[in-house]
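Good day; I would like, with your permission, to put a structural problem before you. A protein sequence and the structure tokens that stand for its backbone fold form the material at issue. Thank you for your consideration; the sequence and its tokens are set out here:
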Amino acid sequence: DIWKPFPVRNMQRFPGGWGIVADDVAAGIYAGMVLWLLTYWRIFT
């Protein structure tokens, strides 16, 4: 939660607890994409 890409940071402003959940889900999706790309480029194999 220290650094977040642009769209994820804006999701934190959703009302109620939705913002907290939405930004964590979006950050997880970004992290998954980065890990997939690193595996695709054979950096982790």
Remarks:
- The helical segments are 6-11, 18-40.
